[in-house]
Structure formats: structure tokens, C-alpha cells
Amino acid sequence: MREGFDLARGGVMPWAPVLLGCGIGLYFTLGSEPGAALLSAAVLIAVALTVAALRGPDLWRAPALALALLVAGLVLAAVRSHLVAAPVLSFRYYGPVEGRIVDIDRSFSDQPRLTLDRVVLEDVAPDRTPTRVRIALHGMQQQIDPQPGLRVILTAHLSPPEGPVEPGGFDFQRLAWFSRLGAVGYTRTPVLALEAPEGRMALLAFRLRMALSGAMQARMEGQAGAFAAALMTGDRSGVSAATNDALRGSNLSHLISISGLHMGLLTGFVFAACRYGLALAPPLALRLPSKKIAAWVALLAASFYLVLAGPNVATRRAFIMAAVMLVAVLADRRAISLRSVALAALIVLVLEPESLVEPGFQMSFGATVALIVAFQPWTRVQNRVPRPLRPVAMMILSSAAAGFATAPIAAAHFNRIAEYGLLANMFAVPIMGMVVMPAGVVAALLAPLGLAAPALWAMEKGCALILAVADWVAGLDGAVVAVPTPPDAALPLIALGGIAALIGRALWLRGTGAALVAVALGLWAGAERPTLLVSGDGAIVGLMEEAGRALSKPKGAGFVAKSWLEDDGDMALQEVAYARPGFAGVKGALSAELAGVTALHFTGKGAAERAAGSCSGGALVILSENWSGAPASDCRVYDAAKLRATGALAIHAGPDGLRIVSAREASGERLWNRRPERRDRAKKPQ
């Protein structure tokens, strides 16, 4: 009886994170937040299924365990959503903001940005004050050097986190909710210090990270220093937008985000150095378990790297993956296997279920699984490859496997495919593994002795070479191919199909997986983009034409415009899209024809006045101010007030007329997009 269950459990184990993830994914696709009664019932069902898996007939145990994991994933995600609940600003705020600096990075527009906690807002009750706010520093003459833990005051514009720029698009509100980020905004005034930095342990690590980053950038030139600092400390505030664009265009952006690659290279180098170092002393090597000692030392190095780089999601995920494999070595188990990857994924999903919908989680585990599967046949044929060519063959195989697994994920999230990504990775990854990371470890060990200069020099040259490869590859003709956003079902089908095809034991399961991937790609190829897109504030609209989407504004609303074009698979600049034919009329009062319906767009000061008298003949009226005329009866009006409730709009024109979908309808009523009572606050500080 027990042996039968063990066999069933062995068959389910590699699928355990997949089943748990399906439950988590189901939670995020619900149209409304599950109530207490539904969650209680789900808990009871999960318990009953678990009992059946433990004590039921052998034939039922594996299916019962699979269903239990599915239901547990839904409950886990719901509980996590409630546990991270924090106040969200419900109105636009302008006034003094006090807070403690807990993060420093750069914004979409390449401006310095501060994240503050322990926030104080004027005339806002503590129970309504966001736990964290993020403020971009625009065009200011900075009077202080931002330091971790420093309490500051500034005058800022704040607003609630915005919803998707189009229905079904990236949901920043959800990301902000799980980050406990209750408001975002900007300031054009100086940041003033109120209190000296605090000395709490978490902030000490942050302060050490920023100090090391500053020291590295002072010793290295230009972007090579900023790149090296990002690799070793996680501080990306010095990396310019141009460098990020080159890394994305060459499919090397994964090198700048501390991930499984960095943690693997670090722990691998420390493990090998420690083990072979002990081997150089035969008396020690014969008496001590050098392999396990090396694993302990590598685990300590990974722990220090985690503390130094900060416990962000990507770093925690990378640490868990490395720790699971090192613990496997300590337990005399195979370190790199599907079971160890499954265990690491389970730990990540239990601790942070929201990781499932993040591209970092998907790409990290997708690449790892692909590498394990790809190297299984390699072990059988490697002896047939000449020894000098084996490293090259392994590099090509690993880059191809990881690239093949992550390409559809990257395309779905970032709307681009780096055509020469394999070429760039073949040049850059060996430099990272053989020069940059080893030099970084050596520099860290020699820095207390004041002997780190040679290692830092080697690291700088390696980083400069990687950036040169990125610039070269990104500059090649056709280096980046834009792709449209896939339908909602496409990426889950690709993920499930890919997993089944890669790890399925039965031939029919692998065939089913391949079929699911083919169906998903077919759905993706046949996806149609909305005819008209409307921003959540009514300030900009985009009309799809044969030449591409025409935008109603040449500048302003840059993030929205860029996101729309990228989702279309269009790499045009906003100014180019504005010049496309599509709209008639003059600035502030544009019109277009959609399936026999006249769409009118009024923006700017006095938009409501210009819209007066336009409500006739079933027109669709969009304006960036509140409708001030008589109640609309012969048209559909989406003014500023209504758009605040609906969010951005996607309008599809067809033979049956217009089909309008709002971001609110697509997202549903969830914890992170509740509609609290709103009020504007524009009072300036006295």
C-alpha cells in the first residue's frame, strides 16, 4: 500500500509546483475577490483531498494530491493578498511628504527615484496614509545626497497607482499592492534631510550595498562601473536608459538583474575554489568531507550575497534555487535535477504566490528546466565530441536551450524578440562566468586588505566588454523584432504545453504538450488588436489603421503611448505614430469613424465646452474633463469621471457595431483595484 503511494508521489512531485501554480493562476484570473465562505469551503476541500491522498486507495492518491495542490494554490494566493494589505491613497495629493528612504532606483523616464516608508502626509489620517510611496525626482536641484535610512521631507504630487493602460494589459496596481506601495508621484523641489539615517539591521545592509556600489563606481569608469555595481550589489540606479536598451536589444538584460545565473556563478565559483583548495592539501582532503565543506561555504556566500543585494523578489528566488541545490549536496542527493527545481519552485510559490505572474519567475524556472532536460542527452554523447570543443558545444547547447525556453515568455511580456540573442549570450556569458563574477568574489575577499585593485580592474574590463557586445549586437540590422501582445490564454498554454513536452514521461503527454504549444502559437498569430484605445484619464487615444496605430498626441502620456505601440508590435516613436493619418479635426477636438459611428475626442482646458452639442446621432464622445452639459441621451459619453470608474478602454469595431471593454471589466473587482471614495487635494503648503 505504502509503496504504491510512494510511486504516485514520485510521479506527482515534478508536477507539484505546476499544479500549485495553476491554482494560483486561477485566483488571479477570477472576476471578483473570493469571499470568506468560498475560501473556507476551499480549505475544507483541500483538507479532504489531502486526507484522501494520504489514506485513500492507491488509485486515488495521486489525483487527490494533484487536486489538493490546485485548491491550495488558490487559497494560498488569496491569503497572501490579504496579508499584504496596506492603505492605498484614494485621491490626488499635492503637499509635503515626509518619509524614510528605503530604496533608490531610476524611473521609466530615467530620473532618480526614491521609495519612502514611515510616510506622513499633511491632513491625511495615519490609517489612510500609504505604507510606502515612490517619488521620481524631476528636474530638481538636489540639496542632499540620498542615503538609505535618511528621513527626508519634500513637496510632491502623489496619486494612487494606476491600472492597466489597456484592458488585459500589465496591471501595475496589482504589482504595487503586493509591494505595499500605496502611492506614486514626482517632485520638482529639493529633497531636505530631517533626521540622520537609522541603524537598523535591514537598513545597515542597504547602506552597505549603496556604499559598495558608490565605491565600485568611483573606481571604475562610466557604465562599466554602474553595470558591475548592479551585478554585485543589486543597485541599478547608475545604469542609464541607453545601456538598458542595448541589453534588452541583445537579450542580455538578464545579466543586470541578480538572478539564478548570478547566484549560480557565485556559488559555483566559491564551491569549486573551496573544494579544489582543500584538495591541494592532501592531509585535509583525506580527513575532511571537502565536498560538504565547500557546499557550506558556498551557502554562506550565497546568504551574504542575498543580504548585500537586498531581499527583492528576484534575489530571493535565486537564493532559494541555489540553497536547495546546495542542501541536496549536503544530503548526498543529486544537486541539479527536476526534483530539486520543483522543490525550489514550491518554496518560492508558497512564500510569494504572486511571483507566478512575474516574468522573472517564469523565465528563471523555464530556463533551468530546459537546461536540465537538454543536458540529459548531452551526457550520453559528450564523449564523442573532441575535448577542446566540448566547452564550446556546451555553451551553444545551454544558450540555445535557455533561449528557446525563455523566448516566448520574453516576447509575451516585453513584445520583442532579440534575433541575435544567442550570439550575444555566447560571447557575454563566458565573460561573465570566467572573468566578471570570479573577479568580483576575489575583490570582495581582498578589499579589507586594500588589495582589490587588480580584481576590480579585471571586473571593469570584463563588464566593458559585455557592454560592447550588447551595443554591437543591438545595433545589427533586424536585431530586434517587435511582436504583438498575445491573447490571455496563449502564455499559460505555452507554459503548460512546454512543461508537458519537456518533463512528461509518457509519449502521449509529450504529444499533448506539443499540441498545446501549437494551439497557443496559432491563437497568438491570429490575435487582433483593438480598433481604438482610450487612456484611463481620456487624455490620449490611439486609432488602429493600416499603417499602424495613430495617436492623438505627439508628446505627453509617454508611458501609455509607448505601451500601446509595443503591445501592437510596433516600434515606432510616439511622434511618428502621431503623424499617421487617422484623425480629423484640430488639436483638442479630433474625430474618427468606427464602423459607422463617429468617435469624438476632446482634450485640454475647455474640453467640456468644446464637447457641448456633440452628443447626437449615437456618437461616441471621449473627453478629459467632466461632462457639463445635459445628460447624454443620444450618444455614449466617457468623461473624466466615468473613465476613473472604468479605467482604460479597448474599443473593437466590427460588423455589429462597437464592442467596448473596460480595464475594470477585464480585471474584475479585486483587492488591489478597489474604488475608494476619491477626492482631489491641490492645496499648496503654507
UniProtKB/TrEMBL annotation:
InterPro entries: ComEC_N, Competence_DNA_uptake, DUF4131
Entry's localization field: Cell membrane
Endpoints of the signal sequence: none
Domain DUF4131: 36-190
Predominant place of localization: membrane
Keyword set, alphabetical order: Cell membrane, Membrane, Transmembrane, Transmembrane helix
Residues annotated as transmembrane: 12-30, 37-54, 60-79, 255-273, 293-314, 335-351, 363-381, 393-414, 426-451, 463-483, 489-508
Membrane topology, as annotated: Multi-pass membrane protein
Annotated ranges, domain ComEC/Rec2-related protein: 231-504
PANTHER family recorded: DNA INTERNALIZATION/COMPETENCE PROTEIN COMEC/REC2, RECOMBINATION PROTEIN 2
Designated name of the protein: ComEC family competence protein
Gene source species: Albidovulum salinarum
